[in-house]
Please model this.
Amino acid sequence: MKNRFLLAAVAFAASTAPAFAHLNPAEHGSLLAGASHPLSGLDHVLVMVAVGLWAAQIGRRALWAVPSAFVGTMAIGFALAMTGVQLPFVEPAILASVVALGLLVAMAVRMETIACAAVVGVFALFHGYAHGGELGAAGALPFSIGFVIATALLHLAGIGLGLGISRLSAGRIISRILGGVTAFAGLALIWN
Model:
């Protein structure tokens, strides 16, 4: 079991390598450019996996409601960027989301599912807006479909990791440690 966990951790860390940086839509198409976008930044990967981990900690309806709230509100943020609405403090809010969601996982915070969905929704709005701001030459619809799919897959990875860890005898502790590591990584990103 330890080997599987180590392999999953290595695969997760490798997914943020520079090779996944923004694909050129002219060469790869807007869909693939959108799908690669969430994978190109450590802040995005950490938040999206943390959402899945937190949903796994809470369980039941949160397993689908919390990630769905993130994806849905992220799409709204993207639409706001496309329509020219100005949203302040986008990058600070994204960095704050890494720290906050890491702390929520580290402290194993339990709230009503609707409250959890609202928390991730606030942060998702800024993530979606950032995706819209970095659209470049990509077509908006295929790009948005790509990053929605990639985001949902990262949430599923977080849920799978969380559910897998929960089966271990020290699962609760490991999950909380991962949350702490996420929060510290967010702090490092802020000062970097």
Summary: The chain has nine helices and no strands. The chain has one domain: 34-191. The radius of gyration is 16 Å. Residues 34-191 form one domain.
